[in-house]
């Protein structure tokens, strides 16, 4: 098939790469490749870490996609950081939040190991003294900017040409879907800070510090990603208040970050949907397929989405939980051009 992919974020590029691997002719169109939410993402591959938002379907999808990540990363030549994720509570009230998450996770059959204060200190000596925590050994991370660069090198992008004819179009424009699908996705602003540390923690740390949630994601090259704010608004620069709260909480947990060199502050829109599940599959309009609305999990779900889109185009199969038609009013079908 000749397939056009609109949008060169991690989702569109993953779809393009998978389709190309299966022998289809793919054209990717994006005036600013890789500069959307994928440019901000911390890169946590955290199926269990998302359960606390009450999203058990995401846990299931995340597990399926996580299973694809090791071979996917290897194929792209991008390292996976596989030392797990540590949840911590700074004081005893914060620890209640950790305990609530651990109970939820155990209820969903996730692998989780509760730790007391001494066990956390032994595992991660660079942390300040905390009240306790838990280890999620199966929640890993990857550098999304490296993934996007590797995918772009494989599939490339081309200027849009109205003369080109395609058998199918995949709409993968993140938080900005073209009409008539624009209202299916809303932007949920997220701010994130990058720094370079000579003494970073050895694994992802997700913590509660006097009620403020923060994560610190280390990379093998010394980069640390500190995130993230979450606001129901789209657009605008990073705010001093948001960044200050993130840095305060991160330094409370990892005091050595005081010496880290600030390298980047980024704000982007997460593509949120009304039910917080992605839109992957048919629109009802012949040949027009959605791969969008991945909210907080687009990096995690990219390899699974790529498979689902390619399977759909080849066989017509759609995962019912992700079928975009669940949210598309009948009159919106057939009007995209
Ligand atoms: C602060 C923050 C932290 C995050 N952390 C994580 C994390 O740790 N783990 C995780 O799994 N997810 C995380 N996410 C979510 C993740 O970033 C998104 O779910 C994911 O990047 C969505 O990818 P995408 O390709 O759909 O969209 P995007 O990356 O936004 O890409 C969309 C692309 O479409 C292009 N485009 C837009 N309009 C058009 C058009 N009309 N024509 C052509 N191209 C167009 C844009 O230029 C852009 O390149 C985070 C998000 C944020 C904001």
Any descriptors?
single chain; 337 residues; alpha+beta; FAD/NAD(P)-binding domain; D-Amino Acid Oxidase, Chain A, domain 2; 2 domains; eight-stranded mixed beta sheet; five-stranded mixed beta sheet; 31% helix; globular; binds flavin-adenine dinucleotide
Tell me which CATH architecture of the largest domain applies here. 3-Layer(bba) Sandwich
Estimate nothing, just give the exact number of structural domains: 2
Structural class: alpha+beta
Radius of gyration: 20 Å
Query: What is the makeup of the main sheet?
Result: 8 strands, mixed
CATH homologous superfamily classification of the largest domain: FAD/NAD(P)-binding domain
Number of strands: 16
Q: Catalogue the ligands.
A: flavin-adenine dinucleotide
CATH fold-level name of the largest domain: FAD/NAD(P)-binding domain
Unreliable stretches (pLDDT < 50, length at least 5) are: none
> What's the mean pLDDT score?
94
Alpha-carbon distance between the two ends: 19 Å
What is the count of helical runs?
8
Would you kindly provide a written description of the structure presented here, covering whatever features stand out?
With 337 residues, the chain is an alpha+beta fold. It folds into two domains: 1-81 and 139-185 and 273-337, 3-Layer(bba) Sandwich (FAD/NAD(P)-binding domain); 85-137 and 186-272, D-Amino Acid Oxidase, subunit A, domain 2 (D-Amino Acid Oxidase, Chain A, domain 2), CATH 3.30.9.10. It has helices spanning 10-21, 37-40, 56-76, 92-107, 117-123, 144-155, 240-253, 298-315, and strands at residues 2-6, 25-29, 44-45, 80-81, 85-89, 113-116, 132-136, 140-142, 168-171, 186-196, 204-209, 212-218, 223-227, 261-272, 279-282, 288-292. The strands form three sheets. Strands 6-7-5-11-12-13-10-14 form an eight-stranded mixed sheet. Helix 1 links the parallel strand 1 (2-6) and strand 2 (25-29). It starts with a strand and ends in a 22-residue tail after the last helix. The relative contact order is 0.20. Flavin-adenine dinucleotide binds next to helix 1, helix 2, strand 10, strand 14 and helix 8.
